[in-house]
Amino acid sequence: MPQILMPALSPTMEEGKLSKWLVKVGDTVKSGDVLAEIETDKATMEVESVDEGVVREILVAEGTEGVKVNTPIALVLAEGESAGAAPAAAPAAAEEPAPSMVQAEAPAAAPAAAVPAAPKFEAQADPDLPEGVEMVELTVRQALNEAMAEEMRANPDVFVMGEEVAEYQGAYKVTQGLLQEFGPQRVIDTPITEHGFAGLAVGAAFAGLKPIVEFMTWNFAMQAIDQIINSAAKQLYMSGGQVTAPMVFRGPNGVASRVAAQHSQDYSAWYSHVPGLTVIAPYSAADAKGLLKAAIRSPNPVVFLENEILYGSTGLVPKVDDYVLPIGKARIARKGADVTIVSFSMGMRYATQATEKLVAAGVDVELIDLRTLRPMDSDTVIESVKKTGRLVTVEEGWPQGGIGAELAARVMEQAFDYLDAPVLRVTGKDVPMPYAANLEKLALPNVDEVIAAVNAVTYRS
Amino acid sequence: MARKATATKAKTQPNAPQFTNEQDLEAFREMLLIRRFEEKAGQMYGMGLIGGFCHLYIGQEAVVTGITMASEKGKDAQITGYRDHGHMLVMGLDPKGVMAELTGRQGGLSKGKGGSMHMFSNEHRFYGGNGIVGAQVSLGTGLAFASKYKGDGSVSLAYFGDGAANQGQVYESFNMAKLWKLPVVFVIENNKYAMGTSIERAAATTDFSMRGASFDIPGEQVDGMDVRMVYDAAKRAIEHARSGQGPYILEMLTYRYRGHSMSDPAKYRSKDEVTKYRQERDPIEQVRARLLEAGVITEDDLKKIETDIRAIVTEAADFATNDPEPDASELWTDITIEA
């Protein structure tokens, strides 16, 4: 015989007042009929019947306060149940309330189980290049363009969409020539509608396509960040591994030149915070090409952070058929023994120039380019710090909760005993980007600040 | 209500289209399954077996039932917001898996990691189950984009409520859908309340079928309590989209009997209003009456259907109660795919 239990009517309700019965013994009830009114701490709510039958007994009188959730409050005799069998069950239930379902759920009520260890990410090493491979000088812009063109040739499901990517040939000319080669079906000019086209691309990825979404700058992607995080990044987990969003969101990130607060900002730390995303921020032309190709092939949503100022800088790119680099592997740009400098993207420019000066002054710097921010290659950094005992981080972004803050925490946790000096961060200043030329310069990190930090941790100042 | 006629206001058929007895029976079974499933979910929420948010579909059953009957199952994609249990049941997802997801168990459709608002099935082409109001409209437009890109002839059915209809990305999606002639049907389930705010208090214009007018997207207002009207309109809309003419808007005038979620006492509307819908417009009772009137089925036959559906729901509830919680190791799985 179905018992009507005192229901929980909110995620936090534990007890309530049975304020009014709307049925009496002998009434016939069916699914959806309102049986009683219950007062919680927030409101008066109705209890509907799920079962059909005749109200046999009311166990808790109206007006009773403090009725615990899951206490039987009435008995309903289902159709077909013999009335004779009922009385035996009823008193028992009334005297000894059935154990509540919540209590019965011992595993849920028990102290939380030990948290299983997080799986460790192991990045692969860069591929070996054939001996005597030809190196070609390319701009970062050309390298990115080649990466997209090659992947679009290889996979018809890859397409690129964004503002001005097709007929205009790209606001920063990164998509130059793609429309001519692949046509308007695969190189798609969108309206100025970041939130909408980011969501549209995520939906297309759900359905099996491989979108490359170009944001004219990452500043505009703030309109779309809900779709990037709530829809793309979390999809695999929320679906228990069934549906994913294999796609690339890319465009220029970081500080541009004299464009002020809304157009000059580094989003590295923002996206690197989010499980489910892969976040890549290359510095060199070769890494830009090899990592963008890897990003397009990735089965996961990738945030690919380029830098407007670096688009025109050149570097040597190996001329091989398929230059793909491993995601999640830092690059040791210079081996050294005295101090470790870790940076990425535009920060590498300051770090590289500082390293040149420091090496000339006799400091043996080990310089690491993270290249990928999530998953972050802690191992390479930790191994380096164990050797040098000193760490300086360099980034354009704000200090609080930044990439440098994350690196400092990891080194504290994993290499504290090896440190000979506190970890120092060189970051953008903790201010919105100013417009005035002198103030903008002050707001950015610079080579002298990197040198000063290295001098401090090596006690040379 | 007088309304200015425009080219984009599509015509709704004046007379209810007729269902065959088979169609009526199918609709009856599907809608009753949703009703009984949701009642059981409400009860289990009350028992503490279901946590967090739980948004019930009771009252709105005819919408998803009529539309799904008019669609090609397994081919056309569907996507909705967080009031999603009914969509999954009608699309053929296992009630046990849905209920076990509500209770957060390992046998749930998302292994217990998604909950009431996050369930998906590539096989059935159901893309959620989305918790951010309005996000599913852009995503659903993307499903249609993929259909056109691949040329697979499928249509995307993107459901959202009268509340979501005021979100900006809805109009960004309307624009692109029309601009690129994407095969998408936007289904606005207008149940008159966005949580506790009535459409009159939230919308400058309350005829949501006209919301695509500035993009020249045809729209019609449909009696969403009559499954035949829903089916008939959906047939037109889906055919329009599938034939390459682009998007179509269906505003379904419907009503939810319960609160916005389980913890909503629904004090913002009168008891009379709810009672009127339940007694005079109930989508299931309409079909039941028709079936009996036509004499094709007896009270006993209907009882048999009721019993069968109760058994399915009871089995789902038992499974969802007894199935273990996910293994602790599931905490770290399905975050990214190892390349």
In words, what does this structure look like?
The complex is a heterodimer of chains A (461) and B (339). Chain A has 461 residues and is α/β, with parallel strands linked by helices. Helix content of chain A is 30%, strand content 23%. Chain A has 15 helices and 22 strands. Chain A is elongated, with a radius of gyration of 31 Å. The termini of chain A are far apart. With 339 residues, chain B is of the alpha/beta class. In chain B, 43% of the residues lie in helices and 9% in strands. In chain B, helix 6 links the parallel strand 2 (156-161) and strand 3. Chain B is globular and about 50 Å long. Chain B starts with 20 loop residues before the first helix and ends in a 17-residue tail after the last helix. The chains are: A alpha/beta (461), B alpha/beta (339). Chains A and B meet through strand 5, helix 6, helix 7 and helix 8 of A and helix 1, helix 5 and helix 6 of B.
Strand arrangement within the widest β-sheet of chain A reads: 11-10-12-13-15-14-20
Strand order of the largest sheet of chain B: 1-2-3-7-6
* Beta-strand proportion of chain A: 15-25%
Helical/strand content category of chain A = alpha/beta
Task: Figure out the total of helices of chain B.
Answer: 11
- List low-pLDDT spans of chain A: 84-108
- Could you give me the name of the CATH homologous superfamily of the largest domain in chain A? Thiamin diphosphate (ThDP)-binding fold, Pyr/PP domains
Poorly predicted regions of chain B are: 1-5
**Strand count, sense and closure of the main sheet of chain B?**
5 strands, parallel
- Looking at the structure, the CATH topology of the largest domain in chain A is Rossmann fold
Could you tell me the CATH topology label of chain B. Answer: Rossmann fold
Query: How much is the average pLDDT of chain A?
Result: 91
Q: What is the annotated CATH architecture of chain B?
A: 3-Layer(aba) Sandwich
Distance between the termini of chain A: 84 Å
| Mass-distribution shape of chain A | elongated
Count of the domains of chain A: 3
Mean pLDDT rating of chain B: 94
Gyration radius of chain B, in Å: 20 Å
Task: Quote the distance from N terminus to C terminus of chain B.
Answer: 58 Å
H/E series of chain B: HHEHHHEHEEEHEHEHHH
